[in-house]
Design a protein that fits this description.
12 helices, alpha/beta, ten-stranded mixed sheet, 426 residues
């Protein structure tokens, strides 16, 4: 079985296994104690939807123009969803005989053709947009609309605190499909804004004086408890040993708005500094992987899909055009070296490339900066002037990768309109 648990806007430093001190996360920590924790686990974008597009396809989202969060639900255009030509992890695992389900946040398209049950998932319980109130009575779309809670394609009335509801539905999915292989994508919206928590859980953190941090702590605590419910259900059904579980965040924490901490990293959500793209990232598979291991070489969320396919006993093919790699042989010691020679990021005017411990980062029209992450994880010392050869090599690698990508569809359409107008005037 395969479970991918995705937290939303959780900073690198929050879980206890990552050094967090003020908010206990025993269930997340148990995954690290029973599996492999990545110290250089990254995602392919510093914001929500593009990361999800890359995670579910195993491909850099710039390959198919999904570089930014989608706009509002006003069109059936590709602008507003994961392009229909892209196969998802659910598509690929369903073809291998897996029951497939998503619980939680989708954020990859609002219109019918783009919704989860049309993208390989047999079951869906959650919402289609990028954020959602945690209490249904605060939701203006609670009786329909893009912000409603959906079961399949129908809006439903949900009375529980949303994090509790998602944990409940995830455990129920496991119970329903205990007799055959399943893929569960548990996509929490915690700890994304709005910051909302139940009164009892807030009382638990009365010792935290800052009200923003107290609410954040209560939200993270609720998500950790929800993960515990999922693990408990697996144990009750004797499924935990042979279930591949991946836990990660979709991007770094937006520290200024929610207090989510990324230290000792520089930057936060929306930036290609490490604080925007390096995240808590853990893999547990008790039957196959070492317990309590730490893996330091750089990996990326694109690796989850090929790893899942390998865990399912199948092979990836060149025709899939995947950018991720199967991590299993690296984690078991069967493969030496690093999974990737380079990792790349492009987010509008920001770009970055990492090779080993060296990272090049560029913002808008500024000069490229060069960091040695082995000695400077906080990206404070720019080596660009001192190491021009390394800078040149990384720039060349980035330019070669970038030449294979396309602009977002709305950018391409705008450019077509601009050319048409120019032609008419001419």
């Amino acid at each position: 079985n395969i479970i991918v648990i995705l937290a939303d806007d959780l900073g690198y430093a929050e879980p206890g296994c990552q050094g967090g001190k003020d908010i206990p996360t025993p269930n997340i920590d148990s995954l690290a104690a029973n599996g492999v924790r990545f110290t250089s686990g990254t995602v392919s974008c510093p914001v929500c939807s593009p990361t999800r597009a890359g995670l579910l396809t195993g491909r850099y989202q710039q390959r198919f123009g999904h570089e930014f969060n989608p706009g509002p639900a006003v069109s059936a255009s590709d602008i507003f969803g994961l392009p229909l030509g892209e196969k998802t992890m659910a598509d690929r695992l369903k073809a291998l005989g897996y029951a497939t389900g998503i619980v939680g946040k989708w954020h990859l398209g609002y219109n019918e053709a783009y919704t989860p049950t049309r993208r390989g998932f047999d079951e869906f319980f959650g919402f289609l947009g990028g954020a959602h109130p945690y209490f249904q009575y605060l939701n203006p779309d609670r009786k329909g609309g893009e912000g409603s809670i959906m079961r399949g394609t129908e809006p439903v009335e949900e009375k529980e605190y949303l994090t509790y509801a998602f944990a409940r539905e995830a455990a129920a999915f496991i119970e329903r499909h205990k007799g055959h292989p399943f893929f569960l994508y548990l996509s929490f919206n915690a700890v994304h804004a709005p910051l909302q928590a139940t009164g009892k859980r807030l009382e638990k953190f009365n010792g935290i004086k800052d009200t923003t941090r107290r609410t954040f702590a209560a939200m993270l605590d609720a998500m950790d408890e929800g993960i515990g419910k999922v693990l408990k259900k697996l144990r009750e059904l004797n499924l935990e040993e042979n279930t591949l579980i991946v836990f990660l965040s979709d991007n770094g924490g937006p520290t200024l708005s929610t207090s989510s901490r990324n230290d000792p990293l520089n930057g936060f959500k929306g930036q290609v500094y490490e604080g925007g793209v390096r995240v808590p990232f853990i893999v547990q598979w008790k039957a196959k992987l070492p317990m309590g291991a730490v893996y330091d070489k750089p990996v990326i969320s694109l690796d989850i899909l090929p790893t899942a396919i390998a865990a399912a006993g199948a092979l990836t093919t060149p025709q899939m055009n995947l950018d991720g790699v199967n991590l299993l042989p690296y984690l078991t010691g069967e493969a030496a070296g690093a999974p990737h020679e380079h990792l790349f990021w492009r987010f509008g005017g920001q770009s970055a490339v990492r090779s080993g411990n060296w990272k090049l980062a560029r913002f808008e029209t500024g000069d490229p900066m060069l960091f040695d992450l082995a000695e400077d994880i906080g990206e404070k010392n720019d080596h660009a002037a001192k190491n021009p050869d390394k800078l040149k090599k990384l720039l060349a690698a980035y330019n070669e990768w970038n030449a294979q990508n396309i602009a977002p569809l709305w950018v391409r359409k705008a450019e077509k309109r601009r050319r048409r107008k120019k032609t008419k005037k001419g």
